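Re-run requested by the PI after the first attempt was lost when the workstation crashed. Everything re-entered from the original request form. Ligand of interest: glycyl-adenosine-5'-phosphate.
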Amino acid sequence: MSESVPETVDMDKIVSLCRRRGFIFPSSEIYGGLSSCWDYGPLGVELKRNVKDAWWQAMVRERDDMVGIDASILMHPQTWVASGHVDGFADPLVDCKNCRMRWRSDDLAENKCPACGGELTEPRMFNLMFKTFMGPVEEQASVVYLRPETAQGIFVNFQNVLNTTRKRLPFGIAQIGKSFRNEITVGNFIFRSREFEQMEVEYFVKPGTDKEWFDYWVQERFNWYIKMGIKKEHLKLRQHDKTELAHYALDCYDVNYLFPMGWAELEGIANRGDFDLGQHAKYSGKSLDYFDEEAKEHINPYVIEPSAGVDRSVLAFLVDAYDEDVAEGEKRVVMRFHPGIAPIKVAVLPLSRKEHLAAFAKEIYADLRRHWMVQYDDAQSIGRRYRRQDEIGTPLCVTVDFQSLEDKQVTVRERDSMKQIRIPISELQKTLAAKLAGEDILVLPPGGQVWK
Ligand code: GAP
């Protein structure tokens, strides 16, 4: 029996909305763009920041067993020898003898060029690390790499963190930052690019407890996406079989998401055993073990690694939020973002640009923007403005009308249900905070009423 596949949106619609509304642009577009590189626009940068903040909040700030770091992108080149990347971080590359297109041979179903059907060369291994030179002389001795993962910045700082925080096992170190991979094939918008951001944790545990912690992190990370609004039926866990495990991994699960091109990896959770600390201890000659006070012995911690892509998460949040429905007889595109992820939380919309009303509305705007990312929009009809806010996923709109000047009340309209309430301005900030935290729009503050 074939598996039923939940519906998802076309990638073209997402790309076009991102371009149209200023979420994401092709990099260096005025020069024709640069393959697989993307620039986050005014809304995209807020969205991306919210994704990273939500992750940091859940992974670092709300936990006693986690601390953060921000390591440099350029690291001592020996790091990548020890980690296995210099020798092993390579994909099999084939060229088409006819049209010269390049492919990853392990991506191809048949041994011929997918573009023209031409004959392919024998595969040769292609290292994915970007190389550059440190200092003015371009010679082998000055080669450094742009990091292909943030993880190694954590491992090389293990002792620094241990010595300065007095953390005991189990504990984790979290990091968010850019990584670079000279991928052979890129595409599907921001899904696979050569410059991207990762959100990684290395969680250090006592050997023997690693399986238990591995299961814990697989569940924890799966549930985080659901908590942040991703539909459960669009998420799946997939265990790697032994043949596909990375050189360092004892076990690995992917959190897969139903992207427009099909199910694909959003995040990987790996049991890295004691590989990394062991390798860095060997290559640096420094001790990276841990003294267990209870057992009075030195141990080599095992590591569980939840490793997520920021850009892939942004894409998943965009795809999952996208919806089309009909509002007042008109088709509307609505981005149903979780309020924590939405780039703009509240829009303030004065019904007219008349000076005394605008000044009053701007006071409300000035007050609210101390708490959230708020947009002020006074252009075109109120219906058009609601549609615009729906399309960028703003959860709440505050409409200020002439009556507001008299009764000191405003209308609050909720994006998903389009229901409205009229409430005193004195209750506005508290009410918006409650609605953004998930309270039903029809729960009224003192003096409020349902608005038709
Ligand atoms: N430290 C382990 C590690 O880097 P990975 O599975 O290679 O593992 C982790 O990468 C996550 O980073 C992936 O699940 C994905 O979300 C993101 N990622 C990896 N390569 C990427 C690329 N070329 N473009 C965008 N995101 C990428």
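Saved to the shared folder this time. The mean pLDDT is 95.
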